[in-house]
Design a protein that fits this description.
The chain is built from 15 helices and six strands. It is α/β, with parallel strands linked by helices and 314 residues long. Helix 5 crosses helix 10. 42% of the residues lie in helices and 11% in strands. The radius of gyration is 21 Å and the shape is globular. GO terms for molecular function: thiolester hydrolase activity.
Amino acid sequence: MGEKGLKRSGVAVVVALLAMVHVSVSVPFIMLHGISAQCSNARDANFTQLLTNLSGSPGFCLEIGNGVADSWLMPLTRQAEIACEKVKQMKELSQGYNIVGRSQGNLVARGLIEFCDGGPPVYNYISLAGPHAGISSVPMCGSGLFCKLADELIKGDIYSDFIQDHLAPSGYLKIPTDMTKYLGSSKYLPKLNNEIPDQRNQTYKDRFTSLHNLVLIKFQGDKVIVPKDSSWFGFYPDGEFEPLLSAQQTKLYTEDWIGLKTLDDAGKVKFVSVAGEHIRMVDEDVVKHVVPYLQDQPSSAQSFNRKTKQPLHA
């Protein structure tokens, strides 16, 4: 082989190596914190950095509004809209990304997956203590100005327009014995879970079922998410506070309103139970149940197919 041939061969090898590097680039992730939290808090900043260090993938804590106050007082519909605009503006996420959600942040995460028109694709979604099927009581708050404001709002009609527009948890508070009001007046979760019979949206289901992996992590000592099985989409039957139904026993699952059954049948749902209180996760469990899904590296061909599939983000 002559000098020119060697050069061409060398160029071909370099091009091939560059192509391999492109394929193996780590997929970035965002972290969405829960209520009474903000990205500047050491707990949330350190958790995002821990995930980055362990996975080798770039991570970003996505802040909505001013953090703590807006986590309580901004309706989830608006929080999801802000998150959607932010991810569309982040060049790092333009080829697709993974999501880690904590507590209430999981409902914003699902809003990104289901509602975000024109947004980049989401590959893996890891949910830590997400109130996916709703909560039957408002989360414990404690003391402080925002908690006092929330307590005053809670004393009113939780399904009134005013409270729905000014108290984030009201958007996923689901009283089993008041389902008519919940379905008619709750402004977030019934839409997110495709619960309203004459308003089920196929696009939301298509987007949710396009996930590569859905990891649902329940905390055995959780006293914030009531019932804690809501983290797995389990809840009470309509009209009753007992028995507690598993996800697979709910109509959301059996009638496949959002595609949870479709994902589960495809082996893409991981129902994980860990020891500990609400979002208190030991490093060993983080390494075992979270990190592997942040190291998942879809090829450029998968990214292209996912990005162009309709109506993923139509």
